[in-house]
Amino acid sequence: MSDAQTQTAIVTGGSRGLGLGIVEALIRNKMRVVVVARDAERLASVAKRTGAQTLVADVADDLCAGRVCA
Fold first, then answer.
1. CA–CA dist 3, 14 (Å, integer)
2. Among 6, 28, 54, 57, who pairs with 43 as Cys (CB 3.0-4.6 Å)?
């Protein structure tokens, strides 16, 4: 396994725009990716399209960090 395959990237706001582009690039490079965003429907689409793990959360919420790292 390469280093990219053993590391996890957490991308906030990864359900659209620049964040989604970053998710796609990381997936192409065989990274394990967790996408965090507020819109469950968009996240479901990202998961289906890329195979990334997703978490519906608002990163402005103090409790979010604990959920992301769990």
1. 22
2. 54
| Helices and strands in the chain, H and E counts | 4, 3
Close Cβ partners of 36 (under 8 Å, ≥ 6 residues apart):
10, 11, 12, 13, 14, 54, 55, 57, 59, 64, 68
The fold of the 3-69 domain, in CATH, is Rossmann fold (3.40.50)
Pairwise CA distance, residues 55 & 23, whole Å: 14
Q: Are 30 and 37 in contact (CB under 8 A)?
A: no
pLDDT tens, position by position, 16-43 = 999 999 999 999 999 999 999 999 999 9
